[in-house]
Amino acid sequence: MTVRQKTRRPKSRSKFSLLSLFEAMATPHALDRYLELVDPMTTVRDLRGEVTAVHRSTADTVTLTIRPTHQWQGFEAGQFVQVGVVIDGVRHTRCYSPACSQYRDDGRIELTIKAHPEGLVSQYLHGNAHVGLVVSLSQADGTFHLPTPRPDRVLLISGGSGITPVLSMLRTLLDEGYSGALTFLHYAYTENDVSYRAELDAIAAENDNVRIVLAYTDQQSGGDLHGFFGTEHLDAVAPWYADAETYLCGPPGLMRGVKNVYADLSLSENLHLEEFAAPVAVVAEDAAGDVTFSDSDVVASNSGRTLLEQAEDAGLTPEYGCRMGICFTCTSVKTSGCTTNVKTGEKDSEPHKKIQLCVTVPVGDVSIEI
After folding, report:
1. Residue 91: per-residue pLDDT
2. Measured between alpha carbons, how far is residue 367 from residues 237, 258, 320, 338 in Å?
3. How far apart are CA 235 and CA 219, in angstroms?
4. Under DSSP, is residue 35 helix (H, G, I), strand (E, B) or coil?
5. For residue 312, what are the contacts with CB-CB under 8 A and spacing of at least 6?
6. Cα 13 to chain center, whole Å?
7. Whole-angstrom Cα distance, residue 169 to residue 176?
8. Cα torsion through 29, 33, 34, 35, rounded to 10
9. DSSP classification of residue 303
């Protein structure tokens, strides 16, 4: 397959000067604030997307096809984008991974979103998304993607809504005419919880080098495997796994199971993963001291929760995106004090350092630029 790459023409200095002039005349509001009154998809700076199709393939998921504005620079399979929606007058942003191939011909993005019980944005999109809805977007980001050149053997493992980034990898490899050994192993509660099941069946039928394996944890009939991930599943679906690169995205239980198996097999270096569940922050029993939000002249007693949660508890509204330490939207400067990263357990006492609020808890007195 011939891979098409888009080239960008450099914008002229005169064009930038004219744009700066218009923006100066639009003060105190950005030019896009006026343009959106005419057409929300007409923007100069802001990256947005219009929903052009809505499909609900399972009871708790919704698939959106989105046409981005001209600022969109594309993505690599496995990466994520930040999607923003206004709910009750407040903009909320969450991270979602495109499920489509990175070579999709029409340049649109396909997102499949699971409505989590406590997910404000996912619940809103599942219940309210419609053709014509305009959302804010970010450029694609994230380190979870396939290497170049492609590995000779690839094992893709997903569970639940974690199917989206690895499905994007599968679709991308197929568009590239990939001829290596490729297994796609997906875990779901039952067959009714599998998104894209018809397409996965078609892919398996049309590609001799691709093996699609569906594993059901709560259903003992149908599918290819039953129960939870273990070495017996690994041996059954990809006996060549030791010589392959494995890409994993799914709920915490699946992530732990696969990581533990690969660690026991001394194959951790072959495992690449994307976590989409926020780490569980345990409130420290010995939490003490004060958290100073220096830019807001607010001081609060350290509750032992993450700095993002403590800022919100104090009535502040710092920017955030994923709330799980992926997107770096909530990065702020810690000017003094000691903190702990709840994902890694590492402590940090270096002053004037950028930290991620959503995965950082203060240890004693901490000052942060919020």
Report:
1. 84
2. 51, 38, 19, 9
3. 21
4. helix
5. 318
6. 35
7. 11
8. 140
9. -
Euclidean distance between CA atoms 108 and 63, whole angstroms:
13
Residue 111 vs residues 125, 203, 205, 275: alpha-carbon distances, Å: 11, 19, 25, 17
C-beta neighbour count of 27 within 10 angstroms: 8
Q: How far is it, in rounded angstroms, from Cα 217 to Cα 249?
A: 16
Pair 109, 101: CB distance under 8 Å:
no
Q: Decide: 305 and 330 in contact? Cβ < 8 Å.
A: no
CA distance 281 to 343: 8
Q: Which two tokens stand for residue 255?
A: 């992530």
Give me the percent of the chain exceeding a pLDDT of 90: 67
For the full predicted model, state whether its pTM sits above 0.90. Answer: no
Q: How far apart are CA 273 and CA 346, in angstroms?
A: 20
From residue 217, give the alpha-carbon distance in Å to each of 185, 186, 253.
13, 11, 12
Contacts of 347 (CB under 8 A, 6+ apart): 338, 339, 340, 363
Structure tokens at 236: 């059954």
Tell me how far apart the 2 most distant CA atoms of the chain are, in Å. 67
Place of tokens 């399972």: 58
User: Per-residue pLDDT tens for 53-98?
Assistant: 999 888 899 999 999 999 999 999 999 999 999 998 888 888 899 9
261 C-beta neighbours (distance < 10 Å), count: 17
Could you tell me the pLDDT band of residue 282, with boundaries at 50, 70 and 90?
A: low
Bridge partner residues of 292 (DSSP): 299, 367
CA pair distance 283, 281, nearest whole angstrom: 6
